[in-house]
Amino acid sequence: MSEPMPAEGREPILSGHQLTRQFAGRSHRALDGVDVAVRPGVSLGIVGESGAGKSTLLRLLLGVDRPTSGEVRFAGQPLDRARSREFRRQVQVVFQDPRSSLNPRMSVASIVAEPLRSLRIGGDRAARSARVAEVLTAVGLRPEDGRRYPHEFSGGQRQRIAIARALAPAPRVLLADEPVSALDVSVRLQIIDLLRDLVDRLGLTLVLVSHDLAIVSQLCPEVLVMRHGRVVERGATADVLTRPVDGYTRALLAAIPQLPTDLVEEQ
Ligand SMILES: Nc1ncnc2c1ncn2[C@@H]1O[C@H](COP(=O)(O)OP(=O)(O)OP(=O)(O)O)[C@@H](O)[C@H]1O
Ligand SMILES: [Mg+2]
């Protein structure tokens, strides 16, 4: 990430236009006029304090929740009520807690093969098994781990399983909502390394929600800072971290004493 990416000029693969989301019974909008553009190859970090609207935005981009007003577009086309098969293949998600996102009754191989089955891709059983073995290996597990069940794995390994499942249909975009914050500190770095490796090797574009600016600075060349449902700052992560324009972003940075300065300079 030492060279600035030539991001301009690339058409966004996923974008949100003037997104608002008002939940019933709430006086404030969870999202209030948010524009966001995810360009291929330019991973985007979304940061902000609790309640800022980060997960709400991610859910709209994933199409599992709909905006009160505004529009989400995939490859330039509005995401309609019935999300297209192509969208469901190309945009995958990883959540915070692998404990609750993996079905304990299913073998790891069935969990990882699930998106292939539901999207009816990946060929016959043998071809699917081969794909499962391939993505398990890609996330640092062994093909034979497919025969085991989620409870037999550690938290970090479970998150690897969740990532393998997301990778199975060969997506272009991986949405991740606090993918390491439920993990032990020692395991976090390994999962961050894995995500960086996948971005580099597979050309994945990450949309990473995190309250941790240090993680965002390692994985995302661009960042969007949210507060009270609005975007208060956006731009190259290196610029935002070193020269924050918005007072709120400065406060966020000041609240992270462990942010290594060499990380910022590396950008
Ligand atoms: N299903 C819902 N019903 C009602 N209010 C909701 C719902 N989901 C989110 N909200 C509200 O919308 C606002 C934004 O929530 P959101 O979960 O997007 O924040 P966040 O930035 O992801 O926070 P955190 O860092 O704690 O995960 C909050 O005020 C929240 O209480
Ligand atoms: Mg959230």
CATH class of the domain at 14-98 and 174-266: Alpha Beta
Overall radius of gyration: 18 Å
CATH superfamily of the domain at 14-98 and 174-266: P-loop containing nucleotide triphosphate hydrolases
| End-to-end CA span | 6 Å
- The name of the CATH architecture of the domain at 14-98 and 174-266 is 3-Layer(aba) Sandwich
Helix-strand category? alpha/beta
Which features does this protein show?
267 residues, alpha/beta, Rossmann fold, four-stranded antiparallel sheet, 39% helix, 21% strand, globular, disordered C terminus, binds adenosine-5'-triphosphate, binds magnesium ion
What does this structure look like?
This protein has 267 residues and is an alpha/beta fold. The protein has a domain at 14-98 and 174-266: P-loop containing nucleotide triphosphate hydrolases (Rossmann fold, 3-Layer(aba) Sandwich), CATH 3.40.50. It is 39% helix and 21% strand. The protein has eleven helices and ten strands. It has helices spanning 54-62, 85-90, 98-101, 108-119, 125-138, 155-167, 185-202, 213-219, 237-242, 247-254, 261-266, and strands at 14-21, 31-38, 44-47, 69-74, 77-78, 91-94, 173-177, 205-209, 222-227, 230-236. The chain has a six-stranded mixed sheet, with helices on both faces. It has a four-stranded antiparallel sheet with strand order 2-1-4-5, covered by helices on one side. A hairpin with a 2-residue loop joins strand 4 and strand 5 (77-78). The protein is globular. Mean pLDDT is 90; it is low at 261-267. Magnesium ion (MG) is lined by residues 54-55. Magnesium ion binds at residues 54-55.
